[in-house]
Amino acid sequence: MQNAIVTDLNRCVGCLACSVACKAANGVPVGSFWNKVLRIGPNPKSPGAQCPDVELYFLPLGCQHCYAPQCVEVCPTGASQKVADGTVQIDKSKCIGCQFCVMACPYNVRYLNEEEKVVEKCTLCEQKIEQGLLPQCVDQCSARARFFGDIETGIENLEAPGEPEDFGEDTSYEAMKVTRVKLGDNVKPFTQEQVYRLPDVGNKPSFAYILRNRTWRGGE
Amino acid sequence: MEVQWSLIGFTLFVALGAGLFALQGILAVLGKGAKLQLPALITAFIAIVVGGVFSFTHLQHWDRAFNGFGNITSGITQELIGIVVVVVVMLVYLVLLRKGELPKWAGIMAAIAGLALVIVMTTSYLMPARPVWATPALYLFYMAQAFVAGGAALWLAGSAVKADDSQLIAARLTAIGGVLVIVSIVAYAAYISTVQFAEVGNYFDPTHPTKAMTDPSAYITQLISGDLALYFWGALIVGGVIPALLGLLKWSKAEGGLPCAAVALIAALAGGAAFRVALYVLGGSVFIFY
Fold first, then answer.
1. pTM for this one?
2. How far apart are CA A60 and CA A16, in angstroms?
3. pLDDT confidence band for A43 (50 / 70 / 90)
4. What is the CATH number of the domain that holds A30?
5. Is residue A120 part of a domain?
6. Would you call A219 and B199 a contact, using CB atoms and an 8 Å cutoff?
7. Is B201 close to A107, i.e. CB distance below 8 A?
8. How far apart are CA A18 and CA A8, in angstroms?
9. Is this complex scored with an ipTM above 0.95?
């Protein structure tokens, strides 16, 4: 099992709702960003192209809950660990704040909590997913660009909050929170070549990004 | 990346202690420097303890430091094991030293233990996520720096106790160590010019709205003639050229070695610290834009 998030970058509008939602749901300290959104571009569509022949996309970034996390490998106390659902979690009571995991992470997504003196990062909202809910960034994505689930069942099966027409008669907040759509049924068609991952230096990131008709930048 | 002074102090003093212990072991194998063995051993031990204290200051929760260290794949755990092993070897060395003449195998043991500790320490910083660090050139630099600092400390100890049979050897070791530092830093600069980062072209990070875009292709310029030039050339000249010249100056003349040895040691440590600062500043992640 490997819980992960897949983001359809053609849908992401860079609204930062995921960043704000993450901050609110997890009490992320000022200066730390368990989830942030980079704008990649504008870059020329082809070498030497000038404006308006440019393109850009937004890239939500956080812990990639890697298959072979370097942060877990370097942690001297076992505070950083890969748990049964495939996510990487930090046992704060074991963390000595050596920050080697911060150095070992290729994506700079780990932060020292200055108050608690321990390292923190995206937990994939473990407090929510254990109750069958979606991570807050998936829940509140205004473009329904983010999908969550066990990526080993195929990315088409990952889920996002449902379409309003799927709620049925019950249009309550509670009904909305449990109604789901699957990625395969909801996003525009894509090929496997249009599924990208962040640069891999042996850590094997589990998160993926779908990008069509634009050039993925940053390597894999 | 932010400069981690605690880790700079740790690697600097552990390199000094390990280098000194290894080189005094080599002297023992050569049957030289009996007079300087004890002061050198005490100095090496103190250096490693000072390094250990530096590493503790890096921990945010040092009160929990001994809760764990159960993860053997962790560089920190391996460093701790390496330090414990070296301290045990030092104790054995001390016992043999107090009994009388050191056997050759004790010298070999000290040399291997010292070298192994430098290798273990370097390995923990070889992180694939940090392309500037993940290179065999890092081994070369740390070993060369341990060599020159250990050689200069040995020279200082030999001059202080007037160990006439070993002062020249220690001065020559310092000179060789200085040359090795120069070679290792040049090799490192050559490596840095080839480092590849993930490039995304133009980008904007809303969490750092006023920060300029990172340009990793400018790393080598930054090192040679930019804001890190002082550290780079300082490491090369102060940490390499000065100890090498001082060692050469006293290559065949023991008299007046004490001030030269003292300056060589200070220069080796200052240069070593300077290059470590540069390594931290350049130690961006492979996905440098995040």
1. 0.90
2. 8
3. very high
4. 3.30.70.20
5. no
6. yes
7. no
8. 14
9. no
Nearest to A78 among B61, B62, B68 (CB): B68
Which residues in chain A have their CB less than 8 angstroms from residue B207's CB? 33, 36
Q: Which amino acid is at A162?
A: G
A96/B130 CB distance under 8 A: no
CB contact under 8 A, A77 and B203: no
Q: Any idea which residue has 């391996």 for tokens? A: B78
Which residue of A lies nearest to B58 if distances are taken between CA atoms?
A98
Residue A199 belongs to some domain of the structure: yes
Residue A88 belongs to some domain of the structure: no
Give chain A's domain count. 1
Q: Which two tokens stand for residue A147?
A: 């999908």
Closest Cα to residue B10, out of B178, B127, B125, B133? Answer: B125
Strands A208-210 and A3-8: parallel
Mutate to test the interface with B, among A90, A96, A112 (most CBs of B within 10 A): A96
Range of the domain at A196: 3-60+125-210
A74 closest CB neighbour out of B58, B74, B198: B74
> Residue B276: pLDDT above 60?
yes
> Would you call A59 helix, strand, or coil by DSSP?
strand
Instruction: Say if residues A6 and A197 touch (Cβ distance below 8 Å).
Output: no
Contact residues, chain B, for A40 at CB < 8 Å: 200-203
Backbone angles phi, psi at A119, to 5 degrees: -90, 145
Does any domain span residue A129? yes
Q: All domains of chain B, ordered by start, with CATH?
A: 5-281 (1.20.1630.10)
For chain B, what percent of residues have pLDDT higher than 90? 67
Q: How far apart are CA A77 and CA B67, in angstroms?
A: 7
On chain B, the residues whose CB falls within 8 A of the CB of A104 are 127, 129
| Residue numbers in A near B202 (CB within 8 A) | 40-43
Q: A67 exposed, middle or buried (CB, 10 Å; 0-12, 13-18, 19+)?
A: middle
Residue labelled with tokens 């390496």: B82
In the predicted structure, residue A40 carries a pLDDT above the cut 80: yes
Q: How far is CA A93 from CA A73, A80, A154, B146, in A?
A: 18, 11, 35, 36
